[in-house]
Amino acid sequence: MSSDAPRGVFITFEGGEGAGKSTQIARLAAALRTASGREVVTTREPGGTPRAEGYRAALLRGVAKPFGPFAEALMFAAARIDHVDALIRPALARGAIVLCDRFADSTRAYQGAAGGLDPALIVSLERVTLQGLRPDLTLILDLPAEAGLARARRRGGEGADRFEAEALSFHERLRSAFLAIAAAEPARCRVIDASPGPEAVEAAIRAAVASHRPDLLPGETGDRDHAA
Ligand code: TYD
Q: Domain containing 130 — which CATH number?
């Protein structure tokens, strides 16, 4: 490992609309703080830093939509560069556990698979934006598109945004895209069934984290053990 390699742990949460990511991130953060005693940073995309939150407000209002998926992806990337440089890399360098609500897989799924942007462009954009940074673990909260949208619409507020307004077929493509990412990168990704209630989803997430990194949740049984 080189001396500038991050010492922290980077965990991302992905999935379609209404999968319950924010509730689960708060619960996992609390569990990790208690169990590991390490610094736990929770953050989100687009956003996470004051500059990137400015981009978020514009993106969720649909400001970039008329410019097409490539321009929109560039704006997500601009927000991500600030977030990575100003928040994520410094936290990892301090040894923190970083829990991030959405990251580069959302660009692959929303602007790529569902939005129709050329996958080769997404790969190039990821390379220049992330400069080798990669989540240690990605938890994909999976839910039928219709159920997720219904949940997101009930939630309302900021959730009534640019992407929730897309047709059901867009959200079905998103779901397939996240499942395809998980299938292509099984060492990094774990699919979590987000259909049951929050307690059951929380237990599945803790088991996935414990099986990936037993040191983070000592005493927990990992999901591989459950499966055995
Ligand atoms: P948010 O209200 O946080 O949605 P959710 O609660 O479902 O996570 O809004 C973020 C929206 O931005 C969400 O619809 C997904 C979208 N998005 C992209 O299209 N590309 C990206 O790279 C990222 C990070 C998010």
A: 3.40.50.300
In a domain, 205, yes or no: yes
CA–CA separation, 33 and 189 (whole Å): 22
Question: Count of domains in the chain?
Answer: 1
- For residue 154, report the distance from its CA to the centre of ligand 1, in Å: 17
3 part of a folded domain: no
pLDDT one-digit tens code per residue, 187-205: 999 999 999 999 999 999 9
Question: Rounded CA gap, 66 and 200, in Å?
Answer: 40
Domain encompassing residue 165? 9-226
Joined together, the tokens standing for residue 119 give: 């996958």
Rounded to the nearest whole angstrom, what is the distance from the C-alpha of residue 108 to the centroid of ligand 1? 12
Q: Is the CB of 156 within 6 Å of ligand 1?
A: no
Helix pair angle (69-83, 119-130), 10° resolution: 20
Please, are residues 88 and 52 in contact by the beta-carbon 8 Å criterion? no
Ligand 1 closest atom vs CA 158: 2
pLDDT tens per residue across span 96-114: 999 999 999 999 999 999 9
Q: What is the pTM of this model?
A: 0.94
Report whether residue 45 contacts ligand 1, using a CB cutoff of 6 Å. Answer: yes
